[in-house]
């Protein structure tokens, strides 16, 4: 069975390092530094099983990234989790309204993050399995 692919978008090297090294045994982790790099990666035909995205980044921030992938319609099946240092209800609500599946505040417990990732991927697979059996 192949490893599930997680795309991590964060301009903080330390966060990318923590996520990559915490999850590399169980997941194939791709780390990018900003939303524009991630958008280019997706538009090149790469479809990860999950996206973890920061909000405050250069070039294309997390809100802009969410808006662009939502507008495209091509990436609706990829769950997006926001991982941000911003712990404001308005930001969380806006992210959920823009299509994010989850929101976790930094600093975070890596065990909580991995539990949330596994749950989101499991829900996605059940959903896709259900709809593929309906056809």
What does the model show?
By secondary structure, the chain is an alpha/beta fold. It has one domain (4-134): 3-Layer(aba) Sandwich (Rossmann fold). 48% of the residues lie in helices and 19% in strands. Strand 1, helix 1 (13-23) and strand 2 form a beta-alpha-beta unit. The model has no long low-confidence stretch (mean pLDDT 91).
Task: Provide a quick synopsis of the model.
By secondary structure, the protein is of the alpha/beta class. It has helices at 13-23, 35-43, 62-72, 89-97, 110-134, and strands spanning 4-9, 27-32, 50-53, 80-84, 102-105.
Total strand segments: 5
Overall pLDDT score: 91
Per CATH, which architecture?
Answer: 3-Layer(aba) Sandwich
The CATH class designation is Alpha Beta
Helix content: 40-55%
Biggest sheet, strands in spatial order?
Answer: 2-1-3-4-5
* Portion in beta strands: 15-25%
**Spatial shape:** globular
Rg computed from alpha carbons, rounded to a whole number of angstroms: 14 Å
Features:
single chain; 135 residues; Rossmann fold; five-stranded parallel β-sheet; 5 helices; 5 strands; 48% helix
Secondary structure: elements and pairs:
Layout: E1 4-9, H1 13-23, E2 27-32, H2 35-43, E3 50-53, H3 62-72, E4 80-84, H4 89-97, E5 102-105, H5 110-134
Parallel strand pairs: 1-2, 1-3, 3-4, 4-5
